[in-house]
Structures are given as structure tokens and as C-alpha cells.
């Protein structure tokens, strides 16, 4: 931007002379032939780098004009150099400085001196403008930072509020789950008494009136018995499932191979009936709840036997995988079979409650076994997954913590996070 200089002199030849001296330095000039005209110009424009003003002018002299100029706040930053042909003495010079002058140039004007002084004030003007621009930039940056800090504080408050809501929701869900488990336990327990009566009186009816009952009646009684047996199995499975959450949560270091051997000994009649062959590799010592591990192993092995191929003896391999890397916190135990398998797209659905891939007429079951396995593993803060292909067998993978029960739940993680401000 070209620096603007206001020239004030009542003589046209003086104005032309000053323009001629400074014209090659790239300035833009505005002229005023009197102090009043200079004031009119300054009412509309005030972005001048410098004012060069003659002292001796009619009506308003240079001193008076300068005093009026500096009465306006917007004009106080413009330096004024007085141009005069007279030496007024120290008193008058002081009067000029008091009126606002920053310097004097005496006539006849020395061109080099005029250029040098004007160049200094123009450079000061340009530096001042750069500083002002930098200040405005810093103010804008500071304003943006304040807005960002305010937005961040607002976001943190929202996050803290959401975390608090999350904690409350977790508490409500835990209470609801406990209530549901208690309800399932009590309901299942109370359902067994009328069920026992149904089976007892059905047996009495069948035995006492066996000869009097028509063949169709015997078939109906048999179906009642089968349905009652299935219902009893279902109730027992629900009871087992609901008891997982209310069991004593004591975790002790246990020999997993011994726990597995106890289960296999209990299942020996079932394994012999199916002509099943089981190979077991040594399993590690883990900190677990032995009471819960028993139904976990039992259901995974019985599941492999149940879904074996027809006329093909079940083969089940049980082994573990302990990674030597210190960052690996889990031990994986594999249950591999040669059964009918399933489509991998159902690998997550099979662990849902009452989810079955086959009809009851094909394979008996309640649809609770694998859901129970998942719940037991999660009580140990572990994971369970499955890999399978149709007609190619399945592998169930149980991942349990190497260092015992991992007590750090999602709820505790939220509570212990220092960012929450709790």
C-alpha cells in the first residue's frame, strides 16, 4: 500500500516543490491550501503516514491547525512536520512541539534532508501498521483459542455427564440382571414341583390303567412323558444358567487337567455309548472357579458328541496354547471335533440363549448349553469363539486369563479413568 502524505500550504508553488522532491519515492499525496481544508480532508480520511504543514498561513496558522487536528482521537497518531522560513526562537519552537509537531524543516528546503526525514516517519508508519496487523492476528488467534478451550470444556462436561449416565446405566443393568437371575432361579425351582406331579401321576395312570387304555391313549401318555422330560431338562439348564451369577466367585489356582479328568470320568458311560475317542494334551494351571469350569467342560464335550456324524465315532482333541510372549494375557483351550460342523456365519449366534441350528427331532437339546458356556467364560473375564465348516467338524476356543480373574470390568474402567473428573 502506498503511504499517503498530506501537504498543507497556502502557496501552490510550495506544494508543487515538495511533490517534486518526494515524487520519485513512491508516496501518494493529498493537498490542502489552508488549515480549514486540511481539517475537512481529515474528517473523511485519517490513514496518513505524515503531514507536512506550513506554519505561516492565513486564518488558521500551522500551530492552530495542529492543535485542532490532535483534538480528535483518530488523528493523534499522525506525525506533523512543520515547514517554515522563520526562526521563531526556542519559545515558539516549544509552542510548535506542544501543538503536536514532531520536527521542523526550514526553508529553503534541503531536498536530501526532507527525503531522509520523510523516509524515517514513513518507515515508522509502516512498522506500526505491521505491528497493528500482527496484533489483530494475535487477537484473532487468541479468540479462536478461547473458543476452542470453551468448546473443549463443554465437550469434557458432556463426556463427564455421559460417563456418569453410563455408570448409572451399568448399575441399573447389573441390578436388573441380578433380579432376572433371581427370578429365573426361583421360577425354575418352583416349576419343578408341578412338573414332578405331572410325571408322577402320568406314571400312575399308565401303570394302573395300562390294560384299559387304548393304544392311542398310550401314545398320548408317552408324548406327555417325553414333553415333561424335556421340560425338566430345560428347567435344570435354566437353573444352572441362573446360578452362574449367584455362585461363590472364589477363584483359586487349579490344575485344569485334573478338572477335565473329573468331567471325563463322569461322562464315561456317554463316551462309551458313542464309542468316542478323546485325546487330551496337558493343560496349564489357571486361577479359576472350579465349580463353574465343570459345566463349561461338560457342555463343550457333550456338544461335540451330540453333533457327531452318523456312523462315525466322535473324535475329540483337547489341547491348550500358551504364547511365550509376555504381553499375551490369555491361555487358549481348544475343543476340536470331527462332527457335522456348521456354517461359519452362525459362529456368534450359537452362543445366544435358546438359539439352535437344528430341529429337536434331529438333535435333542434346550439351546442353553453354549449360552451357559459363554456366561461362565465371561464370568472369568475371558472369551469363547468357534471355527467351523459344514461336514468338517468344529473347534471351540476358550480364552481364559493367565493371571486369574481379570477384575477390571468396563464399569471400573469408567470409574478409574482420570479424564472423567470423578
Key terms:
16% strand; disordered C terminus; rod-shaped; 11 helices; 3 domains; Rossmann fold; Heat Shock Protein 90; alpha/beta; 5-stranded parallel sheet
Describe what you observe in this structure.
This protein has 422 residues and is an alpha/beta fold. It folds into three domains: 4-109, 3-Layer(aba) Sandwich (Rossmann fold); 147-247 and 410-422, Helix Hairpins, CATH 1.10.287; 250-404, 2-Layer Sandwich (Heat Shock Protein 90). Helices cover 52% and strands 16% of the residues. The protein has eleven helices and twelve strands. The strands form three sheets. It has a five-stranded parallel sheet, sandwiched between helices. Strands 7-9-10-12-11 form a five-stranded mixed sheet, with helices on one face. Strands 6-8 form a two-stranded antiparallel sheet. Strand 3 (50-54), helix 3 (62-69) and strand 4 (80-84) form a beta-alpha-beta unit. Helix 9 (290-306) packs antiparallel against helix 10. The two termini are 57 Å apart.
CATH superfamily of the largest domain: Histidine kinase-like ATPase, C-terminal domain
* CATH fold group of the largest domain: Heat Shock Protein 90
Using the CA coordinates, give the radius of gyration.
49 Å
Instruction: Give the overall silhouette.
Output: rod-shaped
Counted by DSSP, the helix tally is 11
Query: Which CATH C-level class of the largest domain is it?
Result: Alpha Beta
How are the strands of the largest sheet arranged? Answer: 2-1-3-4-5
- What structural class do helix, strand and pairing data support? alpha/beta
Low-confidence stretches: 406-422
CATH architecture of the largest domain: 2-Layer Sandwich
Residue share in β-strands: 15-25%
What profile does the largest beta sheet have?
Answer: 5 strands, parallel
Integer count of domains: 3
First CA to last CA: what distance?
A: 57 Å
Number of strands: 12
Elements, N to C (H/E): EHEHEHEHEHHEHHEEHEEHEEH
Amino acid at each position: 500500500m502506498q503511504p499517503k502524505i498530506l501537504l498543507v500550504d497556502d502557496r501552490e508553488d510550495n506544494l508543487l516543490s515538495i511533490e517534486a522532491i518526494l515524487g520519485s519515492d513512491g508516496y501518494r499525496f493529498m493537498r490542502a491550501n489552508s488549515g480549514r481544508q486540511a481539517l475537512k480532508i481529515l474528517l473523511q480520511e485519517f490513514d496518513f503516514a505524515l503531514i507536512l504543514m506550513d506554519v505561516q498561513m492565513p486564518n488558521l496558522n500551522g500551530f492552530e491547525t495542529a492543535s485542532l487536528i490532535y483534538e480528535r482521537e483518530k488523528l493523534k497518531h499522525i506525525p506533523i512536520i512543520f515547514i517554515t522560513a522563520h526562526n521563531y526562537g526556542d519559545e515558539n519552537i516549544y509552542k510548535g512541539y506542544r501543538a503536536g509537531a514532531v520536527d521542523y524543516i526550514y526553508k529553503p528546503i534541503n531536498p536530501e534532508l526532507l527525503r531522509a526525514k520523510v523516509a524515517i516517519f514513513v518507515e515508522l508508519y509502516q512498522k506500526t501498521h505491521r505491528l497493528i496487523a500482527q496484533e489483530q492476528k494475535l487477537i484473532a488467534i487468541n479468540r479462536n483459542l478461547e473458543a476452542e478451550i470453551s468448546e473443549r470444556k463443554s465437550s469434557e462436561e458432556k463426556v463427564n455427564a455421559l460417563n456418569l449416565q453410563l455408570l448409572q446405566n451399568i448399575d441399573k443393568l447389573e441390578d436388573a440382571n441380578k433380579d432376572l437371575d433371581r427370578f429365573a432361579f426361583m421360577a425354575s425351582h418352583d416349576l419343578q414341583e408341578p412338573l414332578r406331579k405331572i410325571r408322577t401321576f402320568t406314571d400312575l395312570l399308565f401303570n394302573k390303567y395300562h390294560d384299559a387304555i387304548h393304544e392311542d391313549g398310550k401314545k398320548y401318555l408317552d408324548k406327555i412323558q417325553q414333553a415333561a422330560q424335556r421340560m425338566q431338562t430345560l428347567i435344570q439348564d435354566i437353573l444352572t444358567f441362573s446360578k452362574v451369577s449367584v455362585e461363590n466367585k472364589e477363584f483359586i489356582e487349579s490344575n485344569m487337567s485334573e478338572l477335565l479328568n473329573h468331567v471325563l470320568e463322569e461322562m464315561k458311560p456317554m463316551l462309551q455309548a458313542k464309542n468316542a475317542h478323546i485325546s487330551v494334551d496337558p493343560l496349564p494351571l489357571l486361577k479359576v472357579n472350579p465349580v463353574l469350569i465343570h459345566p463349561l467342560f461338560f457342555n463343550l464335550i457333550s456338544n461335540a458328541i451330540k453333533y457327531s456324524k452318523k456312523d462315525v465315532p466322535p473324535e475329540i482333541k483337547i489341547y491348550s496354547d500358551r504364547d511365550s510372549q509376555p504381553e499375551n494375557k490369555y491361555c487358549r483351550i481348544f475343543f476340536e471335533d470331527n462332527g457335522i460342523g456348521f456354517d461359519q456365519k452362525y459362529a456368534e449366534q450359537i452362543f445366544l440363549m435358546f438359539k439352535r441350528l437344528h430341529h429337536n427331532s434331529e438333535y435333542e437339546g434346550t439351546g442353553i448349553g453354549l449360552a451357559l458356556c459363554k456366561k461362565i467364560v465371561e464370568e472369568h473375564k475371558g472369551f469363547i469363539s468357534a471355527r467351523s465348516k459344514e461336514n468338517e467338524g468344529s473347534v471351540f476356543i476358550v480364552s481364559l486369563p493367565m493371571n486369574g480373574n481379570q477384575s477390571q470390568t468396563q464399569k471400573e474402567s469408567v470409574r478409574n479413568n482420570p479424564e472423567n473428573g470423578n
